[in-house]
Amino acid sequence: MALPPSSRKVVVAAAIDGAPTFGDVGAIHVTAGPGTSAAPLVQATLDAATTERTMLLTELYRRGPLWRLRAVGQGYDHGLAALARGYGVDIAG
């Protein structure tokens, strides 16, 4: 899948529905690389979550002509809809 040339950032987030939190889940391992059979180029472990129900995991962003990956690990106690609204995504309901 190719992104339009005007794309500047892709945000990867996760949310938990119900009572569990990311503190209950434990460490989250993020890896990225070219294709499924190659060794990962980037690895990160996000393991400081406590009460968060939504977590911003990574950002893939354009810097000049290159794409870069940043591990974020920022957690929020509110749901995914509130996080999406913070990025300007219109959520119905």
Automatic annotation (TrEMBL):
InterPro entries: Stress/Tellurium_Resist, TerD
Domain TerD, residue spans: 2-87
Pfam family, one: TerD
Record-stated family: Belongs to the CAPAB/TerDEXZ family.
Protein known as: TerD domain-containing protein
Organism per entry: Streptomyces hygroscopicus
Lineage: Bacteria, Bacillati, Actinomycetota, Actinomycetes, Kitasatosporales
